[in-house]
Amino acid sequence: MREFYSLYAERLGAICSRYIPDKDDMKDVFQESLIRIFTHISDFSYRGEGSLQAWASRIVINEALNYLKETKRYELLLLDDVVEETEDEDPPIEEIPPDEIQRMVSQLPTGYRTVFNLYVFEDKSHQEIASLLGIKERSSASQLSRAKNLLAKMIRYYNDKHHPR
Amino acid sequence: MKEQWKQQMRQKMADYKEPAPEVSWDEIDKALAANKQQVKTVAMWPRRIAAAVVVLVTAGAGYYLLNREQQDIIEDTAETRLIEGTITQEPVIPQKEEVSDLPILAKAKYKIQQAIEEQKAEALSAISMVEDSVEQLAQVVEEQSEVQEPEPQETKTQEQPRKSSLPEAHPTIYPSDFKRSASSDKRLMAKVYLSNAMLGNNSGNSYIELVPLYSGQTQMAGLLQVSLNNDQDTTEEEVHQLDAHHHLPIHFGLVLRYALSDRWSIEGGLSYALLTSDIRQTSNIRQTSTTSITLLRQYDADIEQRLTYIGIPVNVSYQLWGNRRFNVYASVGGMAEKMVKGKRYVEETYPMIQERDESVSIRPLQFSVNGRLGAEFLFIDWLSLYAEPGVGYWFDNGSDVPTYYQDKPFSFNLNVGLRFTIK
Predict the structure, then answer these.
(1) ipTM, 2 decimals?
(2) Phi, psi dihedral angles at B401 (to 5 degrees)
(3) How far apart are CA A105 and CA A21, in angstroms?
(4) Per-residue pLDDT for B322 more than 70?
(5) Residue A147 in this model has a pLDDT that exceeds 70
(6) pLDDT tens digits, B303-320
(7) Strand pairing category for B366-380 and B293-322
(8) Window from A90-99, B36-45, B131-140, B308-317 with minimum mean pLDDT
(9) DSSP 8-state secondary structure symbol assigned to residue B206
């Protein structure tokens, strides 16, 4: 178990805090995830390189989503469903270090962030996200577009500051 | 959002790490100890896996050895089998002895041992991890096997052998054709044996699965394949364990009664019933071979099942008591039912929370016989409302779908409906 921790904890921790930026909450969820991983390790089936990490990540994400669900965090931002116009261009991220991206994502409001994470990093469709979070597909799309807009602003600000044209 | 940007984002963050939070190992140990009571598992697999892992490692290390010193290696199939059999049965690391004086078998073992020491220091640390987890699991299983009780009555296990859909699905290779297959199929057959073992891999080459088990050298590949194949002649099957709670079905009927005499009458009609069940399903996908059972994956799901039946009842009834408004009677009869609509709402609860709707079909008709005591209220002399508690026997129609009828073939039930009487 300790070996597992030393091998994977940093990555899994990063994933966990992508969903739950609050350090204390994240720690609880992370601990629960580890317990879940260790108690269900017998269910894991080896599928090639990286499969253990992928499996463990799924459990971490699942725990994180459950936590968010229980605390109803992501529902707070579903006030209106008007989808704003999406920006045409995706903001350039080549120059931005990963920890900065992580920081930006963690600053997004919970609803935006959750949908954004699932959509971008877990490659889920809006339909899947909607069923995972118990929201409407339309809400998932609007949350994503807001997340994206907000993130784009942060990215542009960062780029201007660090690499002024 | 463009796919490209999404990919770029994902790649950027793929290897991102953060200092991990400190966790409380005490609490984790405690939680694991508590969980031991709940662990459901196949009692025989941990030690089998341990054996398989040792065999695998031995074979993998053997490859290195063989790769370097091919000419030393066993020339014919008979000897190959000998080696393979011995390794499988005695995966214990052999003691060091003088190489030159030894029979070929011990020599191979010695070299394997040597190879492990020289080449696989890192692998050994991974093995110790595996062994840790295996030991722990074995311990859990031991305790569990003492605790484990027979399943509750409602539990029904269905085994459905299924064709493997895994990308690493292993072709069945028999010793007699090992040479041919060695050159045609170079997939890593050992992979599946790492299932359940905590042999993760993210970087570097410290993991067993990176050992190329064979790379085209026919003889050596044959040896390895055969030795692995001993355990690889496997079938994969999905085992569903269902805990079903069925709700009492109520039949709603519209029947036509024909009075034969003052007391005797026969009736027939249409009956509608909705059978609802809450089912908890645990699906294990496991691989069985002659020597082991490996639990590959587990899915848990909560299922709400709704089956709609339309039936044709035929009854004979005898009036026990009656006046202008009420009748009390006894009846016996039979019914043929057809399930016309079956729906399942499936909520997967592990490993991911997912929901989906499924449809269920039951082709064969459902026949039943029943006896009941009825009471009816007559609105007018040819139209009445009836309620009939009774007992029935539902014949097995061979369907796999868990239903009230299948689970409780002889059971109490209730009919209500409207009756039209012809005199």
Answers:
(1) 0.83
(2) -70, 125
(3) 9
(4) yes
(5) yes
(6) 899 999 999 999 999 999
(7) unpaired
(8) B36-45
(9) -
Give me the residue spans of the domains in chain A: 2-71, 78-162
Size of chain A, expressed as the number of residues it contains: 165
The closest of A119, A104, A113, A115 to A139, measured between CA atoms, is A115
Look at residue B118 and tell me whether its pLDDT is greater than 60: no
| Residue of chain B whose alpha carbon sits nearest to that of A88 | B1
Is residue A146 classed exposed, middle or buried when 0-12, 13-18 and 19+ CB atoms within 10 A define those classes?
buried
Are the Cβ atoms of B17 and A35 closer than 8 angstroms?
no
Torsion B29-B34-B38-B41 (CA) sign: positive
Distance of alpha carbon A165 from alpha carbon B15, whole angstroms: 29
State the CATH architecture for A2-71: Orthogonal Bundle (1.10)
Judged by CB atoms closer than 8 Å, whether chains meet at A35 and B296 is answered as: no
- DSSP labels for A80-102? --PPPPPPSSPPP-TTS-HHHHH
Q: What topology does CATH give the domain A78-162?
A: Arc Repressor Mutant, subunit A (1.10.10)
Among the ranges B9-23, B106-120, B334-348, which has the highest mean pLDDT value? B334-348
Q: Which of B1, B23, B353 sits opposite A148 (nearest CB)?
A: B1
The predicted-structure confidence for B167-192, as pLDDT tens digits, reads as follows 333 333 333 333 333 333 333 333 33
| Cα B276-B281-B285 angle, rounded to 5 deg | 145
Tell me how many degrees the CA angle B354-B283-B239 measures, rounded to the nearest 5.
155
**Each residue's pLDDT tens digit, B50-109:** 555 555 555 555 555 555 544 444 344 334 344 443 344 444 444 444 444 445 555 555
User: What does the domain layout of chain B look like in residue ranges?
Assistant: 36-233, 237-422
The answer to whether the CB atoms of A34 and B39 lie below 8 A apart is: no
Among B15, B18, B205, most A C-beta atoms within 10 A, so best to mutate, is: B18
Instruction: Report how far residue B57's alpha carbon sits from residue B119's, in angstroms, rounded to the nearest whole number.
Output: 12
Q: Which residues from A are below 8 Å from B18, CB to CB?
A: 10, 13-14, 17, 99, 102
